[in-house]
Design a protein that fits this description.
It is a single chain. With 744 residues, the protein is of the alpha/beta class. It folds into 3 domains: 196 residues, no CATH class; 322 residues, Alkaline Phosphatase, subunit A; 146 residues, Jelly Rolls. The chain has 24 helices and 27 strands. The strands form 6 sheets. Strands 3, 4, 5, 6, 7, 8, 9, 10 and 11 form a 9-stranded mixed sheet that branches. A 5-stranded antiparallel sheet has the order 14-15-16-17-18, covered by helices on one side. Strands 19, 20, 22, 25 and 27 form a 5-stranded antiparallel sheet that branches. Strand 23 and strand 24 form a beta hairpin. It is globular.
Length: 744
C-alpha cells in the first residue's frame, strides 16, 4: 500500500497517464476508427509528444485549458468526420467548442464516439487529480532539448509529404492541431518562397470560362418544353453516391445502396451523375442553383445575404425570372426560416410565398430539433402542390427537406434496421421522396410539370473520393422520351438556372453563368468547387487540380470531375497555385461594390411567437443576421426596434448576443429593457472593427408569453476615418493590456 501511494505521488505516475492520454489514446482511436495511415500516426506522435513535453510537471492552471482544447479537437474531429465526412476547418471550430451547438446537434442520436469521449474525460481528470496530489514544488519540467523530438517528427511528416504525397483524406494524414498549425504557418512560408523566387503579383487570371453563359451546345429538345410548372426538390445533404446509376456510371467502389427507391426513379428520368456541388452550407447551395452564380468559395458573407442589397442582380435569379413570365413562385422548407435570413433572402430571389415549419398543420411522426421529419414534410408538400393545381396560374415550387441533417431524423423501426442514425435517416428520406414522386405521378402532376430532384450540399462519405463535392441532378420532364437516361458531361449547381430557362426557351440574362443541361456540348468546360477544405478546378481538358490548405496543389488526369480514381500527375505550389486561388477570389467578388460600406436590414415585420423559456442560441434565435463579414477598419452601427403584439403582464425578456464562427464575442452591447405592450424596445449602438470579422452573427434571444414584431434590425458598416482608426487601435490596445500584464 505504501509503495502504491509513493508511486502515485511520484512524477512518473502522472507522466505515464499523460503519455497514454496524448500518445496512446490517439494511436489506438485512429486504429479503432479505421483511420490507419502512416502520416496520421506520425502527426499524432508529433503533436502528442509536443504537448507531453510542454505539460509535464506544469501547473494544472496551464494543463487544464490545453488538455480541454486538445480533447475537444480530438473528439470533435471524430464526430464531424462521422457526421459529414470531412475534417473541421477554422471556420467551423465552433462545432467543437460550443456546448449549445453540440447539445443541439447530438440530440436524439447522441455522440457517435461515446467511448472516446469518456476515455478523454477520465484520463484528463486522473492526470489533473494526480498533479494536484503531487507536490509541485519538487517538480522539474523536461529539458527543452526534448523539443527536438516533436520537431523532428514534424519535419519528417513534411518531408514525406513532399517526397511521396498521398491522396488520402485529410483526417487520415493529420490530426486537427497539426492541421491548424500547418495552416497558420503556411501563408508566411509561401510569401517567403515567392519573395525568394522573385514572384510578383501579376494581372488577374481570366475567369470568363467560369462565369459566362454558354448556350453553344446542341439542344436535346426540338422546341420549348411543354411543361407549365416547375418543381425543384432539394434533399438535405444527399450525395450522388447514393444513386445506383451514378455509382455505376463512374465505376464507384462504394458498394452500399442507401436509396434504392430513389435510384429506381433515377432510371426513369435524365440523371446527370458528374454533377458538382460548389460548397457546403444550405444557403450557399440554394444561391448557386437558383441564381446561376458561384456561391463564395470561402467562409465570407454568403452571396444570398449580399443579395438583400442588390435588387438588380436578384431580379435575374430563377424565381424572379419565372415570376416575370407569369408563374407564381413558392418556397417551402421543413425547418424554420429565420436562421440565415431565408425569410428575406428567398423573397428577394423572387419567391412570392416563402414558408417554413410554421406553415405545416399536419402532425410530425417524430420530434426532430431542426423541423419536420421527411415523411410528414412530403405529405404536407403534397397538399401544397394540390392547392397550387386548383388554380389556373402556372407555378414554380422549390422544396427543401431537413431530416438528413445531423443529428438525423428517423423512426425507431428504421434505426433498428440500420447500423447508424445517418443511414436510417437516409432510408427514411428514400421512402418519403419515393412515395411523394409516386403520388405526383398518380395525380398527373408530371404530365405538365418539369421536376428536378437534387441536393443543397453533400454530407460526404468516408473513404469515397470527392464525395463532399458529388451531387446529382435528376430531371423528369413530359418529353422524357427525347432525353437520355444518363446525361454526359460535367455540370453543377451553377447550371441549374440556365437549364430551366433554356427548357422553356425563355431569354436568359447575361449575368447568369453556366451551361444548360438540356444541351449536348462537344467540348469540356472549366468548373470549380470548394469542399472539405480543398479547392478544386477542372480545366475541361482532362485535368483536375486540387489545392489543399497549405496551398499545395496536385494535378490528376481525370476526364470528368467526379471519378472514383484518377492518375496522379504531380504537385506544385507558388505562383501557379496562387493563380488558382485568385480565380476563386474573383468568383467570390462581393455583390456589394460599396468599397467597405455595408447595409443590411433583417426585420421582416412578421409576428414572432416567443417561447416561455429560451436556452438555445440557434433554435430560439429571432433574427437571421448570420455569417456576415465586417471589413477591417470599419465601424458597425446596429439599430433595433421591437414591439409587442400580444404580451402578458410579465413582459418579454430579450438579449442580443454576437458571435464569430458561432463562438461568443465580447462586445459592449447595451442590455435590452423589458418589452411590454406599452413600451417597445428601441436601441442603437456602435462598435469598431480594427480587424476584419468573419462569420459574424447576431443572435436575438427572447422569452415570454406572447408574440413580437421586429420593426427594425439594421446593420450598417462604414469605413473609419483616420482619427477614428487611431482611437480604435488605442481602445484595442487598452483591452489587450490587462491580459498581457497577467502573463508578464
Amino acid at each position: 500500500m505504501r509503495f502504491t501511494c509513493n508511486w502515485l505521488r511520484s512524477p512518473s505516475s502522472s507522466l505515464l497517464v499523460l503519455a497514454f492520454l496524448l500518445l496512446g489514446l490517439p494511436l489506438l482511436s485512429r486504429f479503432a476508427l479505421s483511420w490507419s495511415h502512416p502520416y496520421g500516426y506520425l502527426s499524432d506522435l508529433a503533436i502528442g509528444s509536443l504537448l507531453l513535453i510542454t505539460l509535464h510537471q506544469r501547473s494544472w492552471l496551464l494543463s487544464l485549458p490545453l488538455l480541454l482544447a486538445w480533447g475537444i479537437f480530438t473528439l470533435g474531429t471524430a464526430e464531424l468526420v462521422n457526421a459529414v465526412g470531412r475534417m473541421p476547418e477554422p471556420a467551423d471550430l465552433h462545432y467543437l467548442s460550443d456546448a449549445q451547438f453540440v447539445s443541439h446537434s447530438t440530440q436524439g442520436a447522441g455522440l457517435s464516439q461515446p467511448s472516446l469521449a469518456l476515455a478523454i474525460a477520465l484520463l484528463i481528470a486522473l492526470y489533473l487529480g494526480l498533479r494536484s496530489w503531487q507536490k509541485l514544488r519538487h517538480a522539474t519540467p523536461l529539458s527543452s532539448t526534448w523539443l527536438l523530438l516533436p520537431l523532428s517528427l514534424f519535419a519528417a511528416h513534411t518531408v514525406l509529404q513532399q517526397l511521396k504525397p498521398s491522396e488520402a483524406d485529410q483526417w487520415l494524414q493529420f490530426n486537427l492541431p497539426h492541421k491548424l498549425l500547418a495552416e497558420s504557418t503556411n501563408s508566411s512560408q509561401q510569401y517567403l518562397a515567392d519573395w525568394l523566387a522573385g514572384d510578383k503579383p501579376g494581372s488577374p487570371p481570366d475567369i470568363s470560362a467560369l462565369n459566362q453563359l454558354d448556350l453553344s451546345g446542341t439542344p436535346l429538345l426540338t422546341q420549348a418544353g411543354s411543361a407549365r410548372n416547375v418543381l425543384i426538390i432539394t434533399l438535405e445533404g444527399v450525395t450522388g453516391a447514393y444513386l445506383k446509376a451514378s455509382r455505376k456510371a463512374i465505376g464507384s467502389s462504394y458498394t452500399q445502396d442507401p436509396m434504392p427507391r430513389l435510384s429506381q426513379w433515377a432510371e426513369r428520368g435524365m440523371l446527370t451523375y458528374d454533377y458538382v456541388l460548389h460548397g457546403h452550407q444550405t444557403i450557399r447551395g440554394l444561391y448557386a442553383m437558383l441564381c446561376g452564380d458561384y456561391n463564395k468559395l470561402d467562409s465570407g458573407t454568403p452571396k444570398g445575404v449580399e443579395l438583400l442589397n442588390n435588387a438588380e442582380r436578384s431580379e435575374q435569379c430563377l424565381p424572379a425570372q419565372l415570376r416575370e413570365r407569369g408563374l407564381s413562385t413558392h418556397f417551402l422548407q421543413g425547418a424554420g426560416l429565420r436562421f440565415m435570413a431565408k425569410d428575406q433572402i428567398m423573397p428577394r430571389m423572387g419567391f412570392e410565398q416563402t414558408l417554413g415549419r410554421d406553415w405545416f398543420k399536419n402532425k410530425p411522426y417524430i420530434e426532430f430539433p431542426w423541423g419536420m421529419d421527411d415523411k410528414a414534410y412530403f405529405e404536407g408538400a403534397l397538399g401544397y402542390v394540390q392547392q397550387l393545381r386548383k388554380k389556373r396560374q402556372p407555378w414554380m415550387l422549390t422544396l427543401l427537406t431537413v431530416g438528413t441533417h445531423q443529428p438525423y431524423s428517423a423512426p425507431q423501426e428504421y434505426l433498428d434496421r440500420h447500423a447508424t442514425a445517418k443511414l436510417a435517416a437516409i432510408a427514411y428520406l428514400d421512402d418519403a421522396i419515393a412515395d411523394f414522386l409516386n403520388a405526383l405521378e398518380q395525380q398527373g402532376v408530371m404530365k405538365d410539370t418539369l421536376v428536378i430532384v437534387t441536393s443543397d450540399e453533400s454530407h460526404g462519405l468516408e473513404n469515397v473520393r470527392l464525395a463532399s463535392a458529388w451531387g446529382f441532378n435528376l430531371l423528369l420532364a413530359p418529353e422524357q422520351a427525347q432525353l437520355p437516361a444518363l446525361k454526359q458531361g460535367v455540370y453543377g449547381h451553377v447550371d441549374l438556372t440556365a437549364s430551366v430557362l433554356d427548357y422553356f426557351a425563355f431569354p436568359i440574362p447575361a449575368t447568369i453563368s453556366g451551361r444548360s443541361l438540356l444541351r449536348d456540348y462537344a467540348n469540356g468546360r472549366e468548373i470549380m468547387s470548394y469542399t472539405n477544405g480543398l479547392l478544386r478546378q477542372h480545366d475541361g481538358q482532362g485535368t483536375l487540380t486540387e489545392c489543399d490548405f497549405q496551398s499545395v496543389c496536385r494535378r490528376y488526369a481525370s476526364p470528368g470531375f467526379i471519378t472514383d480514381t484518377a492518375n496522379y500527375l504531380g504537385r506544385f505550389a507558388g505562383k501557379p497555385a496562387r493563380l488558382i486561388s485568385q480565380q476563386a477570389e474573383q468568383l467570390d467578388q462581393s455583390l456589394n461594390s460599396s468599397q467597405g460600406e455595408q447595409s443590411y436590414q433583417f426585420a421582416n415585420h412578421q409576428p414572432v411567437k416567443l417561447n416561455p423559456s429560451a436556452s438555445d442560441d440557434w433554435a430560439d434565435n429571432l433574427v437571421g443576421a448570420q455569417y456576415l463579414t465586417l471589413a477591417a477598419d470599419t465601424q458597425t452601427t446596429v439599430t433595433l426596434k421591437i414591439r409587442a403584439l400580444h404580451m402578458d403582464n410579465q413582459g418579454g425578456k430579450l438579449q442580443l448576443k454576437t458571435k464569430e464562427y458561432d463562438r461568443d464575442v465580447a462586445l459592449v452591447i447595451p442590455e435590452l429593457p423589458l418589452l411590454t405592450r406599452k413600451k417597445p424596445i428601441e436601441v442603437s449602438f456602435t462598435f469598431n472593427n480594427p480587424e476584419a470579422r468573419k462569420a459574424f452573427s447576431f443572435h436575438l434571444i427572447g422569452q415570454g408569453r406572447g408574440s413580437v414584431e421586429i420593426l427594425n434590425f439594421s446593420v450598417r458598416s462604414t469605413p473609419l476615418k483616420t482619427e477614428e482608426k487611431l482611437l480604435a487601435a488605442q481602445e484595442n490596445l487598452d483591452e489587450i493590456a490587462p491580459s498581457d500584464a497577467l502573463t508578464n
